[in-house]
Amino acid sequence: MKNQISNFFMSTAVVAGLALASCSSDNNNDGGYEPDLGNSTRWITLAGALMGTNPGDGNGGTMVYAVSVDDAKNPEKSINAYDNGFHVKSQRTARLQSSEDGATLFNIAYTGPDGGEFSRYTVGGGKNMVQSDVTVNISDYATASPRWVKLFDGDKTGIAVNLSGVKVTIEADGKTYKHSRGRATVLALHLQNVLINGYKQYELPLSPSEEALGHYISRLDGPVLNKAGNKLIIGVAKGKHDPATGAAHPSGTTFTRISAKSLVVDYPSLENPTIISSTLSDGNTNGYRSFNNFLAEDGNIYQATQNDTKGSHILKINSNNQYDNSYVFSLDAALGVTGTYVDAWRYAGDGIAYVLYTHANADDQGFVARIDLNTKKAELVTGIPYDADLNFGQYQGFVVNGDEVFIAVTPVGKDGNIYVINSKTNVVTKGAKLINKPGNHYIGVF
Q: What is the residue range of the signal peptide feature (predicted)?
């Protein structure tokens, strides 16, 4: 399942209207579904990834289909997003987010001619997605392949990030390696007014000793706002060049890993980038296509790691925006396996979270675990069928609705179901059936 650039700071605003355009819907091609919330409190939107070249690659785009909570929880219901759904704009897998009440779907197209285009849809049930008639494209600032998440600020703000243009800088002697750096972009989107609030771009240097060895920041993702509301914590992936050649470190060779890190910037100005480091992990903290950092009720931010040589960890960042290196939570130790890798996870409240993961010798097969951030305990969730073709590598969306956590579970190319887990009791209930297609899989609930 990734000449030295001058620092500069820029901001821009794009004013846009809020009028909505009507969108026709052919209910005869909607699987017979009559959109009706009934007694439900929100829509549940399923997202399915279309196969591109290889089964499970998700590179053929994204289909979505919305049902009521009651129907999502009903095992007698069937959902077929591929035949009956709405194709969300994106050449590859769309980067989707939903409003807290499930009534609005947000998307930034990923790559292709529409890459970087932000759009907003009103969810009407089934394939009925009414797109706002205004959009904003951020590709000029964050490239056509930005990564982004929605802040937990009442659906006001999305933060898009990108790290691009990594270049090798040589010392004045013309032959000695100095460092590798790229240009980081952090951009704030106003989700309701559909405009860019502002953005900043800068280099992100590591320590001189780390840079001399060829280490550099290669990717950003998973921004989260701290409790004080004055800092963004952004996950970081690390790359390495061979100082002897300036090329990517040779595949299959070993090198000394450096610590897990995060980027901290002021909010809302997006200025003053600072790198913080953990002593507990050498993994990455950016996640992949889902939230990877969560603010809990205790005021701390909890963060999963990936590509850790000792398996994934959950790290803690305290209210001072520094790693708490006394908080040791190894998923290998807690689950009794080795080589854990967190594909995606979601905080459910009161110290409880659910983790989608794989581990060594599992051949990328996915599993679901319930973790307790307070006791640092973890347990495999039973009641979910674990198939050899179940892979959560591209998983994006969870819905937390009160005490209930909704997860889409479909092996690649096979039918599956929505599963609803009570975060208080850990009781699992099978929900609606998810109809699949060869090479496809469902990648989220929104």
A: 1-21
